[in-house]
UniProtKB/TrEMBL annotation:
Matching InterPro entries: HTH_HxlR, WH-like_DNA-bd_sf, WH_DNA-bd_sf
Any Pfam family hit: HxlR
Transmembrane segments: none
Entry protein name: Helix-turn-helix transcriptional regulator
Regions annotated as coiled coil: none
Keyword annotations from UniProtKB, A to Z: DNA-binding, Transcription, Transcription regulation
Domain of life (superkingdom): Bacteria
């Protein structure tokens, strides 16, 4: 891909797309965003919904998403404390992109080889 620039604004689209991709890069960020696109989640619910993620990694990924302004974290003054995560309006604007990915997957997903899970915590099957 060539570095595309707009002469008027001198914007290097390659660098801008690299910045955009970095917001969602990380093993769990897209899955977190997909879930939060559906509804508000508590930390424990996210951890249970994402097979293989560790508490440490989930915390780190949530902090990065929050720092980038893609999710918001609400702490309720209760005992025990309750924390909820939801997408911001900025992140909700990614909705059409997520829908396009879901459409692409439903058309081509069966042709993608299944990779064995090799990282993260092992989920006990009972």
């Amino acid at each position: 891909m060539e570095n595309q620039t707009n002469d008027e604004e001198q914007i290097n689209m390659h660098e801008e797309m690299r910045r955009a991709f970095s917001l969602l890069s990380g093993k769990w960020k897209l899955e977190i965003m997909w879930l939060l696109n559906q509804r508000i989640y508590r930390f424990g619910e996210l951890r249970k919904a994402i097979n293989g993620v560790t508490q440490h990694m989930l915390t780190a990924q949530l902090r990065e998403l929050e720092n980038d302004g893609l999710i918001s974290r609400t702490v309720f003054a209760e005992v025990p404390p309750r924390v909820e995560y939801e997408m911001t309006a900025k992140a909700r604007a990614l909705g059409p992109t997520m829908e396009a990915l879901a459409k692409w997957w439903s058309e081509y997903g069966k042709s993608v080889p299944v990779k064995p899970a090799s990282r993260g915590r092992k989920v006990k099957k009972t």
